Amino acid sequence: MELVSQIGGGVTNGLAYVGSLATLAGRAAWYTFVAPFRGKPLRMARAFSQAMDVGVRALPILSLITFFFGLILALQSAYELRKFGAIDLVATAVAVSMTRELGPLITAIVVIGRSGSAFAAEIGTMKVTEEIDALETMAINPVAFLVAPKFVAMIVMLPCLTIWANTMGILGGGVFGVLQADFTIGRYVRASVDALILRDIITGLVKSVMFGMTITAVGCLEGLKTGAGAEQVGKSTTRAVVMSIFMVVLVDLVFTMLFFFLGND
Amino acid sequence: MASNELEMNRGDGSDLEPMVSLRDLRVSYGDREILHGISFDVLRGETMVILGGSGSGKSTLLRTLVGLERATSGEVWIRGKNIAAISQEEMDEIRKHIGMSFQGSALFGSMTVGENVALPLREHTKLENSTIEIMLRLKLEQVGLAGFEYYMPSQLSGGMMKRAAVARALAMDPEILFFDEPSAGLDPIIAAGIDQLILELKKAFHMTIIVVTHELASAFLIADRMVLIDKGNVVAIGTTSEMRASKQPRVRQFLDRIAEPEVARELDYLQMLTEDRRPANMPGGKGRA
Fold first, then answer.
1. Does A130 sit within 8 Å of B106, measured CB to CB?
2. Which chain A residues are within 8 Å of B107, Cβ to Cβ?
3. Do β-strands B18-29 and B73-78 pair in parallel, antiparallel, or remain unpaired?
4. DSSP class of residue B17?
5. Do B106 and A136 touch (CB under 8 A)?
6. Handedness of CA B112, B113, B115, B119 (dihedral sign)
7. Phi/psi of residue B221, nearest 5 degrees
8. pTM for the full model?
9. Residue B206: helix, strand or coil by DSSP?
10. Which tens digit of pLDDT belongs to each residue from A84-133?
């Protein structure tokens, strides 16, 4: 009975958590898309500076990681394709894997590490120092002021970063293709482009937007839930990163299934 | 708000209308009731000090007055509205007419002092940047921080941060100013400086000021009236002279700094070593004997 009640408790807590995330994301979306038409304009300067932090400053590390990943993908797939004499297909393998799945996912994980943790730490520290309370007493809504600019920045930047990641991944694969599989750069790029269908790119980008919303919601929710004390800020940040990774993979599963069943029509 | 009106009413107690009225206010955190039916008034233009020890509920009381906590039952009347029963939008409207200085200053670390002070003006008014610039310099001048608008909060000392927080609270020319432990963490000289600042604000603006503190020296200096809260109840309320002369045991204990009787009792060592004091909800715990 103990086990059953623990599982039950876990499920209800999990559902409550997802509910809180959805509520926060919903409110952030309201302040982003609806409130500007009701006399409460979005704080563009804050959104812009968040976008710089989330997007532009992530480019160096994202480029390196996805470049190496493209190379790893090429190596791994070539290992098998070679047996069938189909090493020419390595460009296809890398292009399709990156755009459909790994580009969005790796981008999301890099952004979680950089920005998801930063959101939780920033908002968590503000909670501990009563800055969130101060905003409320000044009649400034914390979700509108802190979360909405981050929300906008993430849903704009993640697709952009994902496109970049896909490109870098394909280039990484290209290094292998040119050095080990008798491709020229031109032929490799042409082969990659031929392998891509619009559907793959679109599904990847839709996923990246959903990942952006998820990471913002988890990071900000954990920050807002922080308890008193510096130790709690550390805990919130850790929880934000771990839960973000989990939720991103969950969202990935949901949308991959969705596209699978839609594609069967 | 005509200052003439205030001067006319100041001397005559019966004409002063309450700025803040509490009627049987109860506040709970979950199952635990913190405030057990608080009732008192704060009159327009007076400085009311809420005194109390740790755990008395004075912080909860202050947080309820500014809408950070929700009342479980009872009424809190501010500016003609019962904030215990209004919407978020209406509460935000009232908040544009109050200012609060937090215990730790709560300045936004990512903004300069000037940007901190200007924030309410930028958010709630359509004033030109140049006008806002003038107003924030004025506010900083009023608190004795002229010239510090480009400093970051981390570059300020504790006392300066407190002053900056007060400047920010004053940005929208509030009718009521709230202070949460204004002397907390400050050395006596700096704390005296904050007391002086509060007295100057009193004299210059005839603002209604509500201060939560446990520092007796500050309290007696700045207060017109004081209310002593103990274990969630109002124990005594009156002017500073009335409080000083009070014969109530709890008031005397607080003002004369008499320790709790349990501390003075001799310890029964055997009982202390063998008693099971684990809370009831811990595994194996039996609760207090």
1. yes
2. 131
3. antiparallel
4. P
5. no
6. positive
7. -75, -45
8. 0.86
9. coil
10. 988 889 999 999 999 999 999 999 999 999 999 999 999 999 999 999 99
